[in-house]
Please model this.
Amino acid sequence: MFRCLTSYRFYSLAKVGFGLAYLWYVSDFLRIHVAIWNQLSLLLPDPRTTILSGNPQLDAVLHGIAKLLSGRAMVWAFALMSPVAVGLFLWGRHKWLQLAVGWWVSFSMISLNCLVGVFSSTVDVWVNLVFVIYGLVALVSPADEWEKSEAGLSLARWRDDPPMASAFAWLVVWLQFLVYFFAGVNKLVLGWIPWTTGVALQNLAIDSSIHDFARGTHVPFWISLVLCYVTLIQRLVVPFGFFFMRYRFWSVLILGTMHLGYAILMNVNLFPLIGIASLLMILPPRMPNLPRASSKASPEGGKTISQERRTVAPKAAWVENTVICLFALTLALESARLTRFDAMPWENKLMVTPGWRMFADGGVVAGGEWRVILATPRERIDATAIALQALPHLWRDRFYINIILSDLLNKNMGPGSLVDRLARSTRRMYRERQLRLHLSPTVVNVGFELYQWKPTPAVGGPAAP
Model:
């Protein structure tokens, strides 16, 4: 019942994209952990205060496990095993091996992220759910069906490019539909005014996610208005084309073009990769002219049963369809719930939070920046560069920077907060630098200044803050 008709080549290329997304994720978090082993830990919350489940007694146990999984040995083990896991994932044979591969990938992603959630993104949840789905399908799929419907690498199949009815592909397509559709719903729920009045794209032109060459570019109102409604249509209407064969190609073309635009203009790295990889499974396959399946009478009641329908035992098919249906329904209901409510702590830590709120607020606080100012006996010093030198220098840095901005705007600056730790670590790094240079390390006070970007009215560089 829950099968998506796709082609072997598109299915295989999509799996390559998923594998690359996982390797990219591991590479990012390896660099984050290496930075933590240096000075980044000074900027981050105390791991002992991290809420993992919301239950204090259970968290006391989970903190020990999380500390073990975030240690150097385990981080390097996850990094070194990642190419092996991807290789086995692409090979695709033996359902029990693939079950282990899918859930190992998910386990490694959760472990690498559990204590450094300030660098995580919604797209990480998307990648993780793809591999959770893969393991789930391997668990419930009948063994004889796995080799046919979830085919592994085969040169002969690549040449022939046969159509495949894949349960994994169906759930990937369903997940992608939910990502787009609820991203549109959240834009209406959380950003009704900027998205419906057409100013959202003007706001987002100065967002920190925009590449430097495009950030601050003036977007005329009429262009912003049109693009706002195009964006809403892309999210709320186009994804329904996934479920109609005649509209699949056009849906993929429209959304694939959108992802390419994001890749060019925005620093959202993994999002275009996982998006385009998932879209490949939606492309319609070539349908060869197959002979009509032979059928023969059932000895019990004289009914005819096709050979295809004899391939799966009714009980096994019922279990598979029931599990897939319940999982798909849970994803949809939780995506709907998260439009109005926050995720539970354990959902965040297990990276199964389908809260698709990408740019949903319409950029109402886009363009905000902060600077760390040190007051010394002689002068005031902009120490922002010193403060940020401990970051891993990835596209994920902006998540930490945006959290600091949000905390400053909301006056969340108490002892132990991220802002407090940033101020203390900046003072410390400045003193260490001054001592190395044999200069005065005295700092009288540490403060912050907030700035707001404004779009430039004409072609040129971004306006100065």
Observations:
- The beta strands are 4-7, 163-166, 295-297, 304-306, 368-375, 380-382, 445-452.
- The longest helix spans residues 8-38.
- Residues 329 and 377 are 63 Å apart (CA to CA).
